[in-house]
Amino acid sequence: MTVVGNPRSWSCQWLPILILLLGTGHGPGVEGVTHYKAGDPVILYVNKVGPYHNPQETYHYYQLPVCCPEKIRHKSLSLGEVLDGDRMAESLYEIRFRENVEKRILCHMQLSSAQVEQLRQAIEELYYFEFVVDDLPIRGFVGYMEESGFLPHSHKIGLWTHLDFHLEFHGDRIIFANVSVRDVKPHSLDGLRPDEFLGLTHTYSVRWSETSVERRSDRRRGDDGGFFPRTLEIHWLSIINSMVLVFLLVGFVAVILMRVLRNDLARYNLDEETTSAGSGDDFDQGDNGWKIIHTDVFRF
After folding, report:
1. Interior/surface letters 98-111, b for 16+ CB within 10 angstroms, e for the rest
2. pLDDT attached to residue 196
3. Residues 70, 91: contact at Cβ < 8 Å?
């Protein structure tokens, strides 16, 4: 005799597992790590940019005037990546497993004054970028801003035109990825005339090194690796705005209720004085205002 389980209980048991699979984009027992051979291409995806102090505000990386392929090919994303605001697309960076690259040209660009101003605003708002290599996030800043002194005040803005990628591998797997501009001088965006074009040459370097670490552990997607600040930021302006709105609404409701009740009480007092002074019957007087509810409260 075959016993068939309750379909409802079966769905309740497997529903959390299905939600977990949709959110992560991987099946059970799959780490999402790709195995490479020496010389195999490693795809670097550009993802998003946004202000550093507001990580929830993000835009596509190619919305900035940067090196972009003629035909943008986007990566198919899982449900969890879509909910996280990812916008991954293939880049022009050519990286091969365990092959170092020394200052390779990425592209040449001629930027108009409007494009330069767009980059200046992004750098002033401290925009960061995020790349993805083999499911590993790489984050860095779009440019460099320097402010010094009050009198005289100097305001310098520079764009990083060279990126130095550092990747660590163990066997045939990539364990760690990072980007650095430590030994790079930023390209100045100051002193450009409105009708002048700015010529830029973007370059990059790739350095591979072997590590004894066998697992990525904390280097998985979704971990900022200490890039974003972890201090608790209290939005006082939003709190004050909410309190003012609450006080205004309570005040408006109280004023309206007081005016209605005061008019009703004045009418009732006038009716009582008129009734007591005259010889009419009390039952002939009809109730008005909020006292009408007594007909519902004392209904048989």
Report:
1. beebeeeebeebeb
2. 84
3. no
